[in-house]
Amino acid sequence: MVDIGTLSLIILLAMFALLAIGMPLGFASAFLAVVTLILKFDVDLLFNTFGRGPLSVLAQAVYRQMTNYVLISIPLFIFMAALLERCGIARDMYSSLNVWLARTRGGIAIVTSIMAVIMAAMSGIIGGEVVLLGLIALPQMLRLGYNQNLAIGTICASGSLGTMIPPSIVLIFYGLVTETSIKALFTASFLPGFMLASFFIIYIVVRTRITPSMAPLPEADPDAPEGSEKALMFLGFLARMACWVVGVLIIRALFFTLTGANVPREGEDPILLGMVSDFPYLIGAFAIALATIFFVVGRERTSRGWNMGKGLVAPIVVIGVVLGSIYGGITGITEAAGMGVIAVFVIGLFRREMTFIIVWDSLMRTLKSTGTIIWVTIGAAALAAAYTLAGGPTYVANLITGADLPTMGIILIMMFIFLIMGMFMDWIGIVLLIMPVFLPIVTQLPAEEIGFFASIDARYIPIWFGVVFCMNMQVSFLSPPFGPAAFYLKSVAPPGIELTDIFKGFLPFIALQLCALSVLLMYPPIVTLFL
Prior knowledge:
Helix content: over 70%
Protein name: TRAP transporter, DctM subunit
Main location: membrane
Keywords: Cell inner membrane, Cell membrane, Membrane, Transmembrane, Transmembrane helix, Transport
Low-confidence stretches: none
Function: Part of the tripartite ATP-independent periplasmic (TRAP) transport system.
Distance between the termini: 48 Å
InterPro entries: DctM, TRAP_DctM
Largest sheet: none
């Protein structure tokens, strides 16, 4: 029988050794789970009481993870991302964004970042975004003479925003493992996610202003609108889009009124923008949008602006369906994922781009990706259960708290461990293996001592820690030697671009991610602003 300290060291070294020789994380975790029980409880105890002994704890842990209803949302989101990648929705979105920012210094890199934010809000899948941006944006930037490091860093850093921006699969998994409200996690991650995206865009703008040769301007199109004319067309596009959105909200509020669903009831939250009291505001917004079209912009400019920007309509619809159904209280996470798949499928049919081959290929890619996630989940859940049964979490907690460090010192050590583990291990394994150990420690720390410039309410600590963890995983997607974003981009990059070139382009963006992580650590209330 091995003591828990020695056992912890054996597990850590064995995990790195198994990953180094190429064993998949799921199988390595499952193997170490059995080894942990054998070293701790002896072989006879495992098999003489089969079905009632320590092995049954592993089976229960795996069963509990695999029967969680929210887990179904993950293959649905992957399927939706695969459909989006194969259809022309993303291509048209890029073209529309490029129309408005083509003559801006670094405009194509900015368009790429904005496109990544929109794609992240549609699907929450990281690998697909990097591949798609690599196929669409990288050749365009290199053709126009953009600095290679800037182009590579923009694509991979922006493409990994699906980790932070809802509906993030990382947040879904964290919520499942820690039993934290996924809706609250989505709400809390909005501001940090867009803050990180804004850091990328600000960096691109400043860097290209300082060194214009990094982002040459394309040749001017004599037929393209310029200056105030383009601004008015964009305003017309926004006004027409607002008419459609507010019109749908008015119809929705009418439906709730006719069915009596929006009658105020004690103990129930009012329906967002669906109550009778909301009608004056909705009608006023609709009137302002119409007045903008007819009296400010003009119908002809609005029509031209709509044609230039209509590639943004389909993504906005998908985002509205997925996030609107969640925050509108219509469905849960899983049902919203299913509605998103249907929305993409119907849009593809209307565009006459949804074919049997696209659907079949998307299903096969979903099956492969989901299979990988499921096996990692099974292995990591088994190892986490075995280590817990052996007393590991208590040992680690006593080790950390016994070091007599200040509260933020303990959290910074955890951040360092996350960053190191993220260099070598998949985020799923980190969530399942480390989070059950770290989160109970964090929730026992004094809430008033968390943060440097402000503290956080104790009830929001699990949510804040989840968002901080996701920001750590943002860094891990770019961190050498196994940063997955580099390998995703390498699979579609031109032959002359090597992995060393890709990792070199990451460096400024890793620094920006660490700055964003520092903001979350120094000022935790930024996470709870909308809760």
